[in-house]
Structure formats: C-alpha cells, structure tokens
Amino acid sequence: MPSVAVKLYSVFFKILLKHRLQSRIQTPSEEANPFGVTSRPEESVAPANPSFTDGIASKDIHIDPSTSLSIRIFLPDSALTPPEPVSKIPLKAKLKPRNKRLDLESGSAQVDSANRHSNGLPARRYSFGPSGAPTREEPGMNGYGGSHDVEGLNLMTSGALYRGYSPELDNRRKLPIMLQFHGGGWVSGSNDSVANDFFCRRIAKLCDVIVLAVGYRLAPESRYPAAFEDGLKVLNWLKKQANLAECTKSLGLQRGSGTEFKKLDAHRHIVDSFGASVVEPWLAAHADPSRCVLLGVSCGANIADYVARKAVEAGKLMDPVKVVAQILMYPFFIGSIPTHSEIKLANSYFYDKAMCMLAWKLFLPEKDFNLDHPAANPLVPGRGPPLKLMPPTLTVVAELDWMRDRAIAFSEELRKVNVDAPVLEYKDAVHEFATLDILMKSPQAQVCAEDISIWVKKYISHRGHEFSY
C-alpha cells in the first residue's frame, strides 16, 4: 500500500483538483479561442537550460503561429561525442566497458526482479506479453549509430548559436526522437512543468534519445480535438524539419573530390519571411527521424495513440519520419460499460473516477459527450486503422489505478493480431506513480523508467545491435 504521506497528499490533491475542475465548469464558457493555453498559473515551471546541466540541454520553441503550441527539446550530451569506430578499438577495450557511468545509467538489461528485491527496489508485479532478460550490446559498439556525415553546414556557420551551444561539424551523432505528451486530465499539466521536465530528462538519459515534450492546448479553452490536432501537428512539423534539413544540406554543400565535402556558400539557407532560419539546428544536427517513438502519460497516452494511428494511415506520406514504437503510461481510457477495476477502485488515489468524469466533461464537446467516444474508448468498433498495423506498444499500468483494466484489454487486442504489446503492471502503484511531482524520485518511478528504456531499445537500435529478448 502507498505510504501515509502519499495517502495524505492524495486527499489534499483531490480536494484542490475538484475545486479547480468545478470552478472551470461553473465559469461561463467564453468564445472559442484558437490560440488557447498550454499551462496554468498555479503550475511550477522549470526554465529551459541549454547548458547541458546534468548531461541534458533543453530549449523551448513555439512552432505554430496560429496557436500556443510549443515544444521543449531535451538533448543529451551523448549526441556531442561521436562513437569511436569498432575497428579502431583495441581488443582490451572491447572486453571492458569504456564508460562505467554510461554503462550504469543505460539501465543494465541484465537486472531481473530478484536482483531488484535484493537491492531494496520494487519489482514489476506482472508482465503480460513477451518478456525476458535482454543481453547488453558489446562494449564499444554503437547501438544507435554515429554520424560522421557533414550536413547542415550552413546552420553551423550562419549564426545558429543558441545561448552558448551550437552544433559542430565533427562532434555529433544521430539519436532517435521521442515525442512526449504530458498528463493532467486535459485541463492541467504542461511540457515545461517541474515534474515533466524532470521526467523527460530522466528518459532522455536512460533511453539516449532526443525528447520533444509537446505543449498541447488545454481544455476547456480548447476542447476536443485541439489536443489531438496539436499532437499530429508536431509530428508533421518534425517531418518538415527533416525535409528542410535535407534541402539545406543540398543548398550549402556539394560533393568534392574523393569523399570530402566542400562548402559552396555559408549564407545560403532556408529562411522565413523575417530572414530567420526555419531549420531547428539541434534536430538537423542530431536527430534521426526514421527512429521516432511516441510516449504518452495519462491523457497524453490517448494523444500518442491517436498520433500513432494517423501515422499508420499516412504511411509513406510521413517519410522520412517513421513511428517505430509507442509507450502508453497508464492511459486515460474509459467506456460506458464499467470494467472490474473501474468499479472496485473508483475512489482510488489522486485521480478517482468522479474527478476524471469532470475532466472528460471539460474536454469533450457538450453535444458529443459520450464515454464511448473514439478519444475515450480504444475498443469501440470502427476506430481505424486495423490494429494489426499499429506499431509495437508498451503499456504501463498501476495496480491501484481504476483505469488499469481497460488499458490491459486494449493491449490484449493488439497481441491478438501479433503486435508486440507487453503490459507492465507495478505493485502498490497509483495513477501517475512515475510522473507525479511527489512520486518522481521514488524507487518505483526509477525502475519504471529503466524498464521503458530496456524495452524501447529493441526498436530504436540499429539492426544488429538490438537487445535480445
């Protein structure tokens, strides 16, 4: 069971949340504002820090002039050091880890549940679907691949400096991208909150990925489908960035003699109407859009699932962006026919069912309010595309969360059509146990992040360097 401190905090949390939700329901609805809001005044915000504090640099970008949609980029410092070619590593170096700190932070894939208990850490209660202890890739091997290609040169030489950091030609590698959608029941939370900033930094380190935390519009100022549209806009923006980076490369560089590149014109680059570069240098230099993962927390998992479905429907039209996997953390699924957990755990900690019903009423349009709405219930008929086309999906659920059964049922449907869709259920855990501010530094939250990194590396590692399961 949760500790006494967590139980007390849950009581005050629910009282405060109920007051805020009811006040927003009782406030006369204003005319729809397409610009919307992406955070609340009461949220504690972590400022962006581009100086690689604790190994992660971050910066904020407003990407849609017609709305408040923004993203926060988290770039791990591992992107700055190109991996040493395997052929140049001495035999002794191949037999020993070259960097003990990185070896530990990557979440050793050989730690099983017995080891967790022996170290005083909580283990997963159950694991549904395929599982097993992966083997670590050979030390010195570059699982994600290094990039020594010279690209985006004009970005480096035309003033693309961001508060002390500018990508350098020979000091970078290509990393996978993870789009992260925060939780908050549609009406609260933000991509730059203290808790979300901490979580994204943790994921960027453990998974060795570039995290793009999405600041989508909140309800009731922007009801459905605003948040879903924002999620898809970010994916399309990422596609545009990848294509612009290629265009910029072709404008600024050409093949020289042999294998060397020569710069034609450092000032030739794609600009907007105000003369500013429209290519994001951090992504142009370090991101690999062909390895894109979606991660959604609570209601953010609903957005991630929607974006994944739209990516599947778009197919090759989304190239060069490819969604290779998605992670749904305690998804905010519901339906008109209650499940066993919805009945038994209706008054659970932090986000109980009555509170979540208020959130759904604020999010869904009043005339379309229905618990079997496609945004709410993942198992309604006719909710395309066919499940067999969905990407590999990891679902994280908590034992004491009333939404757990429907999330497990959705995962079971994916496995029936041969989609890799394991479920990790955590004992004595509550909704948002790995992302809520008061629980962020708990051993359970750390274990959950490590488990996510172990699973996702199967799909973001280059072929031949995947973990074995």
TrEMBL record:
MF GO annotations: hydrolase activity
Family label: Belongs to the 'GDXG' lipolytic enzyme family.
Ranges of Polar residues compositional bias?
A: 107-118
Which InterPro entries is this protein grouped with? AB_hydrolase_3, AB_hydrolase_fold, Carboxylest/Gibb_receptor
The source's domain of life comes to Eukaryota
Q: Name one Pfam family in it.
A: Abhydrolase_3
Give the region (Disordered) as residue ranges. 30-58, 104-137
Query: What is the protein name for this chain?
Result: Alpha/beta hydrolase fold-3 domain-containing protein
- Alpha/beta hydrolase fold-3 domain mapped to chain residues: 178-434
The residue ranges crossing the membrane are none
